[in-house]
Each structure stands twice: as C-alpha cells, then as structure tokens.
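Practice problem: predict the structure.
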Amino acid sequence: MNVETKKVVIVGASAAGLRCACRLRRLQPGWSITVVDAGEVFSYGACGLPYVLSGDIEELGALRRTPYGLDRDEEYFADIKSIDVLAPWRATSMDKEARTLRIESDGGERDLEWDELVIATGASPRRLPGFPEHPRVHTFHVWDDVKPLKIGLMRGEIDHVVVVGAGLVGVELAEAFHSLWGAEVTLIEAAATPLPEILDPEFGEVVARHLESNGVRVLTRSAVAEVVADDEGITVTAGSEDIRADAVVLAVGVEPRVELAKMAGAELGPTRAIRVDERLRTTAPHVWAAGDCVETQHAVTGGPGYFPLGSLANRQGRVLANNLAGGDDTFGPVAGAAAVKVFDLNVAAVGCTAARLGGDGVGVRQAWVSAEDRAHYWPEAKLILLGMVYDPSTGRVLGVQGVGEEGEVAKRIDVAAQLVLRGAVTDDFAAIEHAYAPPYAPALDPLAVLAMAAANQMDGIESVAPLTDLSREKVLDVRVEAEREERPLTAGALHEIEASELHGRADEIPDGPLLVACAHGTRSAEVVRWLAHRGVRARYLGGGVSWRVRALRVGERQT
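Answer:
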C-alpha cells in the first residue's frame, strides 16, 4: 500500500462516496479525506424511501441510523471516522492544473486542494417533457421527496395518485400509496407490461394482474401526452384518457450526474455516464468515479451498461478506496441482479430479457417452469415461476427471471447471478449444489429444474409461454381430476386424459399438433417426449396451468 500522504476530495456523500472514504481512512490513517455533498441530509439508505412511505419502515430517520443507533451526520463522520464531511456544499468549478475544486454554500465559497479526486455524484431523476413545475408534480429520489407526499396523504389532501413509470420505484410507490394510505392509484407505463427493464412480458403480465388484484389500476402501452395542474388538482392525459388526480409522481428512471466529470475533462460513455476502467479511473488524470454516475461493462452483452444500484455503488466504493491506497483491485462486469416487492409477490431477475436481445427465436430461446420453493409436502411451500433466456447454439444462459407469492425467488436469482457472471451454460445450472432440507428447499432446486427444461427444449421438447392464448389450441390436459377441478382450463379444443392413463387410452389421443398441459410443466414435458416417439407433434405449456390460472384470475385488464 502507498504510504505517501495525500489529499483526497470525494464529491458525493452517498453509498459509493462514503464507502470509499471510510475504507480509505482505515487503509491510510494519515491522509486528508474530505467529502463534499450538496444535500443537507446525506448518508441514508435511499432504497428504503418507498418503504417509509408505505409504513414498512416507521420513520425516515431510521434510514440514516447505524445498526447501533447513531445518526450518520457530520459529527458522526468527524468523531467516529475522522472524515470531514462538508454539507450542503456544491462543487461549482475546478482548476485541473492546480488540482483545486471550488465549492459554494449559502455561507460563501472556498477552494479545496486535491491530489486525487473522486466523483460519486450519483444520479438525478429523469423528467419528461411537458411536466410542469408545480407542487402537485413530484419526483421520488431523495430524502426531501418523502415529506410533501407523506404530509399530503396524512392530511387527506391526496386521495388519487398517478404514478408515471412502472419500473422498480414506480411499482414500489404504487403499493405504498395504496396499501397504507388507501389512496386510489393509477400506474402508467409506456411499455406493454410493468418492469420492462428486467422482465419479459410473460412475467410483466403476472405483475400487472397482481397489482390490479390488489387495487392498483395499471395502464400499459400508454404514453403521457399532457399534464395540466391547477389549485384543485392535476389532469394527466394518457392515450385517449384524461385522468384527474391530486398528485402525480414521475418514476421514469434516473440520469447520471456528470457535470463535475465534464469539468474535469473526463469522457462519458455511450450510456452518457462516466467512462471508467476496471480500477474505476476516469480518462482524466488523478480523477476517479464510482456509483450511479458511472458506466460499467454488461456481463451478458459485453458492451457498456448503466446500473444505478446501491449494492454496486457500495462495492465500487471499496474497490476505489483500495486502489487509491495503492492496491490493484478491479470491478468486473455487472449482470444487473434486481429484486422488488409487489404486495405479497416477490419479483427478481438478472441478466437480459429476451425482448432486449431481439425476442424469443431471434438468437435466443426461453424456458419456463413452476415449482415449490421448498419440499412440496412442507406446509409453507409456495409456488414460484421461473424463466430462463438462453442461447440455443451454445447453451449459455443470458438471463433468469422469477415471481412468487411469498416464495423464495430472490435467493434463486442470487445464485443465477453468480453463474451468469461467469458465462455459465444450462448444464452448469442443472448441476448446482444447494443446501437441502424440506423447510428450505426441495431436493431438486427449481433453478436446476428450469435448466433441465431449457435442455429439453434444445433436445426438441418445445414449450410455449405460460400465458399463451389457448383459444385456438388443441389442448391435451394430463392433470388428475382433482387438479382440473381446482383450476379449470379452457381452450379451443380440450381433451382430458390423465398422464398415468395415456398408455391405456392411446387410441383417444387426438391427432397433433397438440399443446400438452399439466400443473407445473414437468409431466407435460414427459408426455411431449412420449408423443414424439409415437409420431404425434406436440408442445407443452411452460410453467403449467397453476401459474396461468393464478395470473389470469382477475380477468381481462385494461391496456
């Protein structure tokens, strides 16, 4: 490690910046470390903000508190960490040659000298054209965004909220407004289904219907054309509809803050975030960057990616500090693992969607399976639906998605993320080792079963998406009678023969092409293989009937 005394200035007191500062202080106790932030409140768990609004977290201050009860304010960092935090101060200009940074506050201005500069300025919420600056128009990204919404809800001034954007934050907000406050919520998304960045439509539709079954109105394929605010409320025009509400919240993603990087002469990448190398150095000398303002390499595509995630920002902060102190750490490609709670539905994904890669059949394929997250006989076992995007020519897995009511989905995606990062193929997924006990997992993990479904596809055992329209299909339902009664299935032509009876009733099997259906998709895959040996063309319903019926239970939704 480098023992030379240095002055390090870090701009941005959030996850990446403060993680870097604290790690660097441990490695270099004699260095001068100054952190500058434009906000009055800093060092809080921003990802917890929607859950303060929902009431899952009782008070806003909890997001700023350490596990042992101390507030992470200026005094905390000065006294406990020996780090100077200047807030609220804004970086306004710099002299690259002299390595000085000018910062300003309401109390005046000052210059900071630096040997090494760290840019951890994060991101700002995107705004859409046509949205007025008005008290009824909100973004939701920082500490100060919570109070006006919560006050309006508490006073009964906000009864109907329009949330524009059904990404991770938009979906979280829709639940928060409705579940705790009972507000009427309209969620508007320009794409065909919610969460389009992480979910293919088969999964997004499940999320949409779950939101609607819990009281949230979902409008998809709807672009906002106009927003008009007045003293009495706000009117949002989406598609051909005028929606009258008390407030609108923009949740259409974020944009990296790169103004300081431009001052420093650092290059931006194709994503318009700061370009850094594996050691998190920018193209400007002695200037580093980390967090939501930087561009990284996408583990699946190999190209540039933008992943504004708190987990990655924390990791980057540590890597950057190690390198500032003289180390040689690297921050590798990112697969983009993400999870979100949608009422009692758990949603998680990693890698690329088929839609992003061109769609099923355009160089990629999709497989689906539903399975219990624990031993099927365990009383608390919950059904989850998993999907895999893969390259049929190589078997490489390009993405995994999952949904489940209270089921253990995120842990499957955590495992999948490690494999996707390493370029794993379906056989690698099928061979995973996991901790097995009936209360925690089945003997054959759903992730391995999913990989086997993909392998079956590559072996010619074809499946279709769980929500495929069956009105024109000739369906062979191979479930037992009790299953059929519990979850009835409708189709263009329906033939019911239990899988165990097929050999004895072979003469009753209709001519192909058939679509074979069972509860989860495993029996039907076996039947398709058996039918192929008999010369009958058939495919099976991926994920089975159980998830299909559950997803469609609220009927037709408005798009």
